[in-house]
Design a protein that fits this description.
Strand content: 25-35%
Strand order of the largest sheet: 1-5-2-4-3-6
Largest sheet: 6 strands, mixed, barrel
Distance between the termini: 30 Å
Structural class: alpha+beta
Number of helices: 3
Radius of gyration: 20 Å
Helix content: 10-25%
Order of helices and strands: HEEEEEHEHEE
Shape: globular
Number of strands: 8
Amino acid sequence: MRYLLIIGLLAISGISQVRGQSPFTAPDSLLIIQRGEASFYGKHFHKRPTASGEIYDMWDYTAAHKHLPFGTLLKVTNLSNGYQAIVRINDRLPESSKRVIDLSRKVAEQLDMVRDGVVEVDLNVLSHHSIAALRAHYDGNPADLRLRLYYEPVFLARNDEVILQLKF
């Protein structure tokens, strides 16, 4: 009876109970793979070939990254205003670049960063399956990417009763 009361109180208070992690319901914070500065490129590169061989169109939802595989889909979040866009990697940044990503003009407009030019962003993959594919591609973890597959919940317990579950 005591355990049912605790489970009921946890359910009423909105604290989730222990459950498996679904790749479709994971909190966004678990899918962030990189944080840093983003810039955009436009007219000068428009209609020129990219590193992938594709012709750059500044009105497409595309981006350049130092080493993510071509075709990788990312959700880019402008941290100053919360605006988001989904982009596909089709070009390369120079290794010496201090930016983490270079976005097309269309994406820069959607993120409301054209006036600023450079903004702080989070790069998220779209699922845990994407993280697994990236880990396989790199055969491990590149130093500049966070590629965690799953997390371990932390429990605060007293006398074998779960008081609170914290997720990181």
